[in-house]
């Protein structure tokens, strides 16, 4: 599944700020946008949220931008909606 993400690095905590169906999220991260720290933190955070391995999450567009497109292996649109409809 492809997921569009807007990242807000250097924030107070790691959290999902906004989820808009079907595939958009805004996420704040404590990590700084230096030395790939925010990208690594984003992948680890989403791996915890979606209960996937870090290797299942790939940044396919926007590695140096706040707006990114990620590929998450093994995640369906139905699972994504179910997780955030609670």
UniProtKB/TrEMBL annotation:
InterPro entries named in the record: DUF167, YggU-like_sf
HAMAP family linked: UPF0235
Pfam families registered for this protein in UniProt: DUF167
Signal peptide, first to last residue: none
Identification of the protein by name: UPF0235 protein THC_0056
GO cellular component terms given for this protein: cytoplasm
Coiled-coil residue windows: none
Family stated for the protein in its record: Belongs to the UPF0235 family.
């Amino acid at each position: 599944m492809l997921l569009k993400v807007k990242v807000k690095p250097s924030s107070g905590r790691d959290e999902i700020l906004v989820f808009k169906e079907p595939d958009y999220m805004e996420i704040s991260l404590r990590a700084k946008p230096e030395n790939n720290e925010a990208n690594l933190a984003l992948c680890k955070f989403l791996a915890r949220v979606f209960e996937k391995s870090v290797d299942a999450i790939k940044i396919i567009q926007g590695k140096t931008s706040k707006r990114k497109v990620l590929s998450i292996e093994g995640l369906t649109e139905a699972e994504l909606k179910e997780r955030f409809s609670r």
